[in-house]
Amino acid sequence: xxxxxxxxxxxxxxxxxxxxxxxxxxxxxxxxxxxxxxxxxxxxxxxxxxxxxxxxxxxxxxxxxxxxxxxxxxxxxxxxxxxxxxxxxxxxxxxxxxxxxxxxxxxxxxxxxxxxxxxxxxxxxxxxxxxxxxxxxxxxxxxxxxxxxxxxxxxxxxxxxxxxxxxxxxxxxxx
Length: 175
Fold this sequence. Notes:
By secondary structure, this protein is an alpha/beta fold.
C-alpha cells in the first residue's frame, strides 16, 4: 500500500462539510495511511452540515502533532470556529515549519490564513473566501486543486478527485 507508514490527522468541529471530511479519510485509509480524527472532545460525535456524524478518537489536547506526516482541514462552516483555537493554529504552524503536508479544501483556507502561513503561497478555495486568503498574502487561483510544496488546497467537493491525488503525492514525498 502506497501510504502504509504514513500517519495523518484530520480535525473536526460541528458543521464540517461531510464529503470534505469523509472522502479524504476513506481514500487515505484505502491507500494504507493511519488516520486519526481529533476535535475538542475525545469520543464525541460531531455532526456535518448534511447530517453525517463522525466520532473523534482524540481530543486536541491529546494530539502529539510531531508524530504526523500530514494534517487535513475539511471545509464547511467548521473552519470559521477552528481558526479561533490556539491549538489548531499551532498544529498548522508546526506542520508548515517542518514541511509536513497540510491539506485544506473549500472554507478550510480560513484556518491557514489565521495561522499566518499563506504569504506568497499558491492556493485555491471556494471563491467566497478568496479575498480573505489574498489579504493573508496567498496567490489565489480559481482551479480545482493546487499543490505548493507542503500545502495542498482544493476548491470544493466536486474537486475532491483532483485534490486527493495531490494529497497522496505530497504524503509520499514526506520524509
